[in-house]
Design goal:
Blueprint: H1 17-20, H2 23-36, H3 39-53, H4 60-72, H5 76-84, H6 97-107
Helix pairs in contact: 2-3, 2-4, 3-4, 4-5, 4-6, 5-6
């Protein structure tokens, strides 16, 4: 082993990023993976994020990511359904999940 390389195998299991990452951080990773077409990674990260959040309901950002996953998998009807589940917030800023979902809905072919 190169003396300048990091010994990744020396990391204890407690340093696993998913063990200490917040649900928001994992959701962000899931969304990025979905956008890149890495569906297996996206699904796994989203599942862990949702478990860490500890609620049974699906949040608007999670619906957005589920829609992205479906869209990348070629399931336009499922993606459309997921995007339509997002609730319009009282205040819509440029980063609102609802606004992103609306843009993706318009881009989906009928």
């Amino acid at each position: 082993r190169d003396r300048h390389s990091f010994p990744h195998d020396a990391l204890p299991i407690s340093c696993d990023p998913e063990t200490h990452a917040t649900s928001s951080a994992l959701h962000t990773l899931a969304t990025l993976a979905a956008e890149r077409g890495e569906l297996g990674i996206a699904q796994a990260k989203l599942r862990v994020a949702m478990e860490k959040r500890g609620r049974e309901d699906v949040s608007d950002p999670e619906w957005l990511t589920l829609g992205m996953l479906a869209e990348r998998a070629g399931l336009s009807d499922v993606a459309r359904d997921a995007y339509q589940r997002l609730q319009k917030p009282a205040f819509v800023d440029e980063d609102a999940s609802w606004l992103l979902a609306q843009a993706r809905l318009k881009a989906l072919k009928p």
